[in-house]
Specification:
Number of strands: 13
Shape: elongated
Structural class: alpha/beta
Strand content: 5-15%
Largest sheet: 7 strands, parallel
CATH superfamily of the largest domain: Glycogen Phosphorylase B
Order of helices and strands: EHEEHEEHHEHEEHEEHEHEHEHHH
Number of domains: 2
Strand order of the largest sheet: 3-2-1-4-5-6-7
Radius of gyration: 21 Å
Amino acid sequence: MRIALDATPLILTCGGLHRYVTELAVALAREFPEDEYLLLSDQKFGLPAEAPLNLAQVANHPAARRWWLLGLPRTLREQAVQVFHGTNFEVPYAGKTPAILTIHDLSPWRNPEWHHAAERVRRRTPWLVRLRRAERILTVSEAARREIIQHFGVRAEFVRAVPLAAASFFRPVTVTPPQKPFFLYVGALEPRKNLPALVEAWRATRDETGAELRLVGRSRKDFVPPEPAEGLNLVGEVPDCDLPGLYSQALAFVYPTSYEGFGLPVLEAMQCGCPVITSHDPAVKEVAGGAALHAGTVTELAQAMRSVSANPALREQLRQAGLARAAQFSWARTARETRALYAEVAGAAR
């Protein structure tokens, strides 16, 4: 098969969308060497590292300024693409190429304050769904699937859930113990992640635990930094190669997110053997599979942080449970299940 994926998320330097497209594209190409996979966008992006030979980047079409209306349909036709995968809420407005649309979650519609620049998605994606511009909707968890079916009023068989996985480089590593213990957050610094609650819980417990708090990730424009405090470190973005060491050093990974479609950092932490404290969000609970502590309020977060800090046996229990849970996911599995959907859609279009 000849399959094209929207590579626009690769213009980002990090984050879940970048990880999704990178890992999925490389895994597809490796699992199905008989296929050809093309990465397309109207913006400049880099080909993933160690891309197999059957994964290629296609140059922008001259009509790229009207990409979704003209440039992309023309490129798909000229490249003889059999299936197009819109990896981030969008597929072409027109054209005959069968398409699959990934809707990661309903955060653009759940709370506009979570996405200050998502008006285009809020406006366009419902129309793409109503007009059946995609043969199937793909999402990343059963929790997100149920929401999508209800929100858009589509048939259950029209929406498929294919889980993600942590990248293979996330693994326990031997590192020098930190000078002071620390709790770790990794992810976008944005309103949806509920970071004020984490900072407040840390402030309430730091005298007892003696632990610092490190916030790692890309800071969005709408993120309001917390008041400075000794032991509170806004680290910002770090290279991927540094993340396993951070997870392996931390007392616990704390992810108090208000809402997720999946919650990939939870699996990344678990695969590194880091104890996980996260929220009661349905998708995150689905992913964690009983291998994490769940806390919603500041009081609950503070109690979980105290418990993990004071109890080495609990930390080891969470470490082992997390490793076992993360082992149940793989990008090879994600690629196989996604490729099966491509074949189904291509076959139905004949």
